[in-house]
Amino acid sequence: MTDTVSAEQERREADLIERVVRSFDDCSDPRLKQLMTSLVHHLHAFAREVRLTEEEWGKAIEFLTAAGHVTDDKRQEFILLSDVLGLSTQTIGINNEAYGDATEATVLGPFFVENSPEIPIGGSISGGATGEPCWVEGSVSDSDGHPVAGARIEVWEADAEGLYDVQHDDGRTAARGHLFTDAEGRYSFWGITPTPYPIPHDGPVGKILAAVGRSPMRASHLHFMVSAAGLRTLVTHIFVRGDELLDSDTVFGVKASLVKEFERQTSDSPTPDGRAVDGSWSRVSFDIVLAPAGT
Q: Could you tell me the keywords of this UniProt record (predicted)?
């Protein structure tokens, strides 16, 4: 609150907060009560600190309304908003506390889709998506170093055009799939070498980024979701070492431990599974460590 606010004005504003907080006194759910009263305190503190104008408040309501209108089963503008404000990454960090050498989590993003196609170990998730082939391999283990057999690994990524399959309007399923680790906790598959792309910026969130001079670009990455009985489900990505966007990823998803070396290969380099590749390709290794469930 600024120094220009009179004592009487301050009293009136504080009294309102007290009355709003008291309105939750009969809430029977202690956690819900905590969330609502804390939200009221922080929202009112923000409004008072910046001396929010009615015009600005109205613009904020218009923004939220527009975000609701553009959101559908293929696009979640509110996730984008949470992402670009760093709230998604903060919440993920709070709920995935550091545990030994467990792999760090990062944002889910708005383009995860249930019921992806299953592929065998060594199979391809590309589904005809454009992009340079990339061989991905690694292992899944628990925090004690024991291999995790049968872990489910969901993977998805954008194509060379910077689009996920759901952003195309032809109903394709491409550059996504799932597979299971073998008896030794190993996995491998063919994907696409990740490339940078912009988050959808033709809507309300994009207007905010433009207004504040921020780029909508995401650093190159490949999404993973890894789950196994008795272990914490991991949602993460890996990023391409050397990508110039690593320090300016628009959703603050990059973590140093998730930056990996994608080794470029020439067309005459033998592939791990003997597959013939027309042109260059890349390969990357990503060993995943899962924390115990409930940690």
A: Dioxygenase, Iron, Metal-binding, Oxidoreductase
CB atoms within 10 A of CB 207: 13
117-142 pLDDT, tens digit each: 999 999 999 999 999 999 999 999 99
Closest listed residue to residue 291, CA positions, set 237, 228, 225:
228
b/e for 27-40, b at 16 or more Cβ within 10 A?
A: eeeeeeeeebbeeb
Give me the numbers of helices (H) and strands (E) for the chain, helices first please.
Answer: 6, 12
Element (H, E) at 91: helix 87-95
Residue in 153, 157, 163 with CA at minimum distance from that of residue 126: 157
The C-alpha atoms of residue 244 and residue 52 are separated, in whole angstroms, by 37
Q: Give the mean pLDDT of 100-104.
A: 97
Beta bridge partners of 260: 240
3-state DSSP call for residue 52? Answer: coil
- Determine how many CB atoms are found less than 10 A away from the CB of residue 255: 17
Residue 75 has pLDDT above 90, yes or no: no
Which of helix, strand or coil describes residue 124?
Answer: strand
Secondary structure of residue 154 in the 3-state scheme: strand
Contact 281, 133 (CB under 8 A): yes
Q: Stretch 196-221: mean pLDDT, rounded?
A: 96
